Amino acid sequence: MNIHEYQAKGLLRAYGAPVAEGRVVLRGEEAKTQAGALDGPVWVVKAQIHAGGRGKGTFREADAGSKGGVRIAKSVEEAAEEAKRMLGRTLVTKQTGEAGKQVGRIYIEEGADIARELYLALLVDRASSRVAFVASTEGGMDIEEVAESTPGKILSFSVDPATGYQTFHGRRIAYALGLTGAQVKQCVQLMGTLYRLFMDKDMEMLEINPLIVTTGGDLRCLDAKMGFDGNALYRHPDITELRDTTEEDPKELEASKYDLNYIALDGEIGCMVNGAGLAMATMDIIKLEGAAPANFLDVGGSATKERVTEAFKIITSDPNVKGILVNIFGGIMRCDVIAEGVVAAVKEVGLKVPLVVRLEGTNVEEGKRIINESDVDVIAADDLKDGARKIVRAVKGEKA
Questions:
Q1: pTM value > 0.90
Q2: Would residue 119 show up in a list of annotated catalytic residues for this protein?
Q3: Catalytic site includes residue 207
Q4: Cβ count within 10 A of residue 299
Q5: Domains with residue ranges and CATH for the chain
Q6: At the N or C end, where does the chain have fewer CB atoms within 10 A?
Q7: pLDDT beneath 70, residues of the chain
């Protein structure tokens, strides 16, 4: 789960990390009041969406202006006007894609005198199963771009969970970032604060980009992104309350209500599979056959007829789906349950696109019988490759 910048800064502030004072604006009429609560002489007005690249983004609507999603204002009135221009408009960035995201919240904060911009992140290193620090002197840039063009400017190391964060970790980062004097002590303290926050809240990612050095020589977190482990949210009702469902794909949000592992993609072949590994293999073979998957969907090993029905309904609600491939290898998951769910879903929502079903494993004969004796128009497949080939050809209007 991700949260907005202003929410992330609220958590940073609660843990004692240095951040600027700011106010969130939800309605245009409150913009002037919120901006007036902050000291000038410069105000920064930021669109709040769950995507990076806001400053370089563009608004689809002409009346929003052409300054991007992060704007500098030199008066309370100007800050309020910029906030009103962005609210309700669609911001398109490199990370949102062409669809963009509608801006429903604005964050106005006090400006900062910036001497240097640095990069800092904490994340879960999947290779070592540890928390890792990533730091770079190239703040304000996409870390992927830095990694590609100047990888030597990135410091990355993991923390031993047996010892946790130690002061030498902070000093190592400080020296890599070229900090000196009192800044080293500030860095050591800040890194410890961020590590504690990361661990306390079960985060998956915490990114400060940029981490700045002010002209006065102090460190400050100028921007902040946070992502949390969805499986641990039951332990953090305070974090769950920060969830903004308007920033999430409606299909993914609906899937989460039924404990379905669903991720929307850009292709045309809807997929219903049991098991993450088999789902990945299914998507790969669809690509090999010359098409693209419209989603990742793992119904899991304990799916019920009702959950399968809901999964099918979510797939068919995607207007980009031109065909559906159901690929079930029954171990814990029973093929007859999948078959009952597919038949029930088709009868409830109708079927306007080709459907290929491949069943194998537990109760496979019963599953095939249920489908064969129904009036559902299904193309049967013998194996994974056969299923992928048949659905791609059916979508293209070719004979299977």
A1: no
A2: yes
A3: yes
A4: 29
A5: 21-110 (3.30.1490.20), 114-240 (3.30.470.20), 250-395 (3.40.50.261)
A6: C
A7: 301-303, 399-400
